[in-house]
Design a protein that fits this description.
There is one protein chain. The radius of gyration is 14 Å and the shape is flat. It has a domain of 51 residues. It has two helices and four strands, in the order βαβαββ. By secondary structure, it is α+β, with helices and mostly antiparallel strands. Strands 1, 2, 3 and 4 form a four-stranded antiparallel sheet that branches. Helices cover 20% and strands 30% of the residues.
Length: 83
């Protein structure tokens, strides 16, 4: 079984679209991180991830409606360096 999070994993963010950026990423794989909930809950998670140094606030999408649940969601794309 693969290790969930490796200490040697490296992440980077890219504000470009996944479709247009993925072909130029080389050995990196785009990973989408979704936060679904109330506007207040989403903002709390985004600001917490910023304080941890995981993502800049502007890297998250603006809240949009999740087509499956009808709730708000925000998306962050990170690129994982593949070994």
């Amino acid at each position: 079984m693969e290790e969930f999070v490796s200490s040697s994993s490296q992440f980077s963010a890219d504000s470009g679209s996944t479709a247009s950026s993925s072909s130029s990423q080389g050995d990196r794989e785009p990973v989408l991180i979704l936060v679904i909930g109330s506007r207040r809950g989403i903002n709390n998670v985004i600001h917490t991830q910023f304080r941890f140094g995981f993502a800049q606030i502007h890297e998250w999408s603006k809240p949009m409606v999740d087509p499956n649940s009808g709730r708000l969601m925000s998306i962050l794309t990170k690129y994982v360096y593949l070994n």
